[in-house]
Design brief:
There is one protein chain. By secondary structure, the chain is of the alpha/beta class. The chain has two domains: 5-75 and 112-251 and 330-352, TIM Barrel (Alpha-Beta Barrel); 77-109 and 268-326, no CATH class. It contains 14 helices and eleven strands. It has helices at residues 5-10, 27-35, 49-62, 81-97, 117-126, 140-148, 160-168, 199-209, 223-231, 241-244, 253-260, 284-289, 302-316, 339-352, and strands at residues 16-18, 40-43, 67-72, 130-134, 152-157, 173-177, 183-184, 214-217, 236-239, 268-270, 278-280. Strand 4, helix 6 and strand 5 form a beta-alpha-beta unit. The longest helix is centred in the N-terminal third of the chain and has 17 residues, at 81-97.
């Protein structure tokens, strides 16, 4: 099979990308995937400047191969004291049942990459082979500086319109995130109508309509899925849930147990955990969320402050059902094994397909 020009430009052999899962992917995972000939990735959305620098340095210490660094480009949160107070009150009984107190006030715990000059400077200094954006785009001067530094830029799109915006901004490739995908849905505007396109339909549309490489993401767990994506015009496939069960993952024991159990068969999209739509394994949090209208949910990432506090309170009592156990619809096909072995297996399955 001929190597796609995008892969040749990055400097990798396999059309297999590990998704940059913030809070779950680790330097050990990214390095193992990259060393195996695929594209490893770090999710830096939850990291402050120092932590981001440490993660990039730790990955560089483990591999001299290319890897992807992902940042979130969400709009800054819009605080609403009344909505946030009601949110705390709503979850007070859950905290009480765990013998804990909810936060007295909710904070904007993550800073967007938009306009973040310090994080931009870090990326310009460390120069990862790839930088990818989720939830939209940073400022045009940030894009220009990263491109000038020779960094390849990816952006997530959930529609052809978003894909066109990425192309117009001068990005190098589009991650076609289907509705099946685990974790945060990459919609630019979480309050706009969502056509909920599947990964294969979206990949095919982008490949036909936009002159940029498309990377299929969502529900892909094995070589057969990767082969199908490539046949539809994708340059590569991005897999996230497939890597959650790897020993290099930062997933806790509760997350791993849920992924290996019946919960994997029942993922759902919810805003209640973080404030933005995200696909999660069925757990206590997603069941509570079924009764909550979107209009009651505070802005992202303010909501996530309470979500993380509730998970910490539960975890202290051995209750993992309030975790952000992100996973896609392919979760039942998870095969826990070391990341390098998984890449090798995926490559063999792809070759056979």
């Amino acid at each position: 099979m001929a190597v796609h020009p995008l892969l040749a430009r990055i400097g990798i052999e396999l059309p297999i990308f590990q998704a940059p899962m913030a809070g779950t992917s680790t330097p050990a995972m990214a390095a193992a995937v990259s060393n195996a000939g695929a594209l490893g990735a770090l999710g830096l959305a939850a990291e402050k400047l120092e932590g981001a620098g440490r993660m990039i340095a730790a990955t560089r210490a483990l591999t001299d191969r290319p890897f992807n660094v992902n940042v979130f480009c969400h709009r800054p949160a819009v605080p609403d004291a009344q909505v946030e107070a009601a949110w705390i009150l709503r979850f007070r009984p859950e905290f009480a049942a765990l013998g804990a107190e909810p936060p007295g006030k909710l904070r904007e715990i993550y800073q967007t990459f938009r306009g973040n000059q310090a994080m931009t400077a870090l990326l310009l200094e460390t120069r990862p082979a790839v930088v990818s954006f989720h939830f939209g785009l940073p400022d045009q001067d940030q894009i220009g500086a990263l491109k000038q530094a020779g960094i390849i830029l990816f952006g997530s799109a959930t529609s052809v319109a978003e894909g066109q915006m990425l192309a117009d901004a001068g990005l190098d490739a589009i991650v076609a995130q289907g509705y099946e995908a685990g974790g945060h849905r990459g919609v630019f505007d979480e309050n706009a109508p969502d056509d909920r396109l599947g990964s294969f339909a979206l990949t095919h549309l982008l490949a036909r309509r936009i002159n940029l490489p498309a990377i299929a993401a969502g529900g892909i767990m094995d070589g057969a899925g990767i082969a199908a994506a490539l046949k539809l015009g994708a340059a590569a496939a991005q897999l996230g849930t497939a890597f959650v069960g790897c020993p290099e993952s930062a997933a806790d024991d509760g997350y791993r147990a849920a992924l290996a159990g019946d919960a994997a068969n029942h993922t759902s999209m919810t805003r209640a955990i973080s404030g933005r739509p995200a696909r999660c394994l069925a757990n206590r949090f997603t069941r509570l969320a079924e009764e909550i209208p979107d209009c009651d949910v505070p802005s992202y990432p303010i909501t996530y402050d309470l979500g993380k506090a509730l998970h910490a309170a539960g975890k202290a009592r051995g209750e993992f059902g309030f975790g952000a156990q992100w996973a896609g619809q392919g979760a039942p096909l998870s095969r826990p094994m070391p990341a390098a072995e998984l890449v090798k297996l995926l490559a063999a399955e792809l070759a056979a397909a």
